[in-house]
């Protein structure tokens, strides 16, 4: 399978714990996006990487959130000191140098 | 006011009916996507268009750039079409997507 993959698919954690999600984009896609989707809503943009450079961050991305894309390949999204409001589906998408974005299956986070 | 508005939010149809979902946006865009999301989360791009009309099987998407409006049509709807349909516009230098809230479609046999 050469699509976008995300790991884990589901994560249940207790409030205050740290969590880390991984996204593996389609090989050679230089653009990578993270989005967050809460129940009943459309996804919202979190952050964007072009190769290893993080070029845009939403104001939704508080200082508890950090994202990296070392070497311009896979990306990680870490949430520190999770809160119940962080419960959502975290989606990753990758893109070549066009407008088309290819989505991963998402990581569903539940914070108890 | 959201930058991307969809209507209706919920739609129930009988199998075989012609379905229309509308999307209006208020920002400048380079392109517009129609996406399909099934329960469980996976999102699939159905169309990307920047002008005119595109057709794929029973699905038709149109866009009017001057009126900032797009429609997704499904002909001869089928229960397997049941899903959330999301309109998203491509905005900004990074080509990030700005999403509507989605339309939950249920097609009953």
The value of Rg of chain B in angstroms is 13 Å
Average residue-wise pLDDT of chain A: 93
Percentage beta strand of chain B: over 45%
Strand and helix order of chain B: EEEEEEEEEEE
Question: Any low-confidence stretches of chain A, pLDDT <50, length ≥5?
Answer: none
Beta-strand residue percentage of chain A = over 45%
Can you summarize the main beta sheet of chain B? 6 strands, mixed
Structural class of the helix and strand makeup of chain A?
A: mainly beta
Instruction: Please work out how many helical segments of chain A DSSP would assign.
Output: 0
Mean pLDDT of chain B: 93
Oligomer: heterodimer
Largest interface: A-B, 26 and 25 residues
What does this 3D model show about the protein?
The complex is a heterodimer of chains A (112) and B (109). By secondary structure, chain A is mainly beta. Chain A has no helices and eleven strands. In chain A, a hairpin with a 6-residue loop joins strand 9 and strand 10. The model of chain B has no long low-confidence stretch (mean pLDDT 93). Chain B is an all-beta fold. In chain B, strands 2, 4, 5, 9, 10 and 11 form a six-stranded mixed β-sheet that branches. In chain B, strands 1-3-8-7-6 form a five-stranded antiparallel β-sheet, with no helix packed on it. Chain B is globular and about 45 Å long. The chains are: A mainly beta (112), B mainly beta (109). Chains A and B meet through strand 4, strand 5, strand 9 and strand 10 of A and strand 4, strand 5, strand 9 and strand 10 of B.
Task: Name the descriptors.
heterodimer; A: 112 residues; mainly beta; four-stranded antiparallel β-sheet; 11 strands; B: 109 residues; six-stranded mixed β-sheet; five-stranded antiparallel β-sheet; 0% helix; globular
Describe what is shown at a glance.
Chain A has strands spanning 5-7, 10-13, 19-24, 31-37, 44-50, 53-57, 65-68, 75-79, 88-95, 102-103, 107-111.
